[in-house]
Specification:
single chain, about 120 residues, alpha+beta, 2 helices, about 30% strand, inorganic diphosphate phosphatase activity, Pyrophosphatase_sf, Inorganic pyrophosphatase, magnesium ion binding
Length: about 120
């Protein structure tokens, strides 16, 4: 049976082995909802696949360790899908801000924070 350390290690390896594409830089408005401004860089890992058929989404915070610090598991009733979003180098406050972004309207999400004892 895999332990959580193996899970976080594999996420770190996925990020390290992928090209990170910033699609929506911090401070830019959402293309469909211009009143929403991205609080942090948001993009995806090229050549990966998420449950929605797109690339794996990723939020990038202000830390510099190139470490996955958390993930968000979301459900969107309007789109009728679920997703996992990787949080890279996010502080606790940044993670909470991102969680709040995914808990509006038809969306609901939970935040899974990497235990400190196994963070790199």
């Amino acid at each position: 049976m895999n332990d959580s350390n193996d899970f976080w290690d594999k996420l770190d390896r996925l990020v390290a082995a992928s090209n990170l594409k910033i699609e929506r830089p911090r401070g830019t408005p959402h293309p469909k909802y211009p009143s929403f401004v991205y609080p942090f860089d948001y993009g995806y890992l090229q050549d990966t696949q998420a449950g929605d058929g797109s690339n794996v989404d990723i939020w990038i915070g202000s830390l510099s360790g190139k470490t996955v610090t958390a993930i968000i598991c979301s459900v969107d009733l309007e789109k009728r899908d679920t997703e996992i979003k990787i949080l890279l180098d996010c502080t606790s406050d940044e993670s909470q801000t991102i969680l709040n972004v995914h808990n509006i309207g038809s969306q609901s999400a939970i935040l899974l924070i990497r235990p400190k004892s196994i963070a790199i």
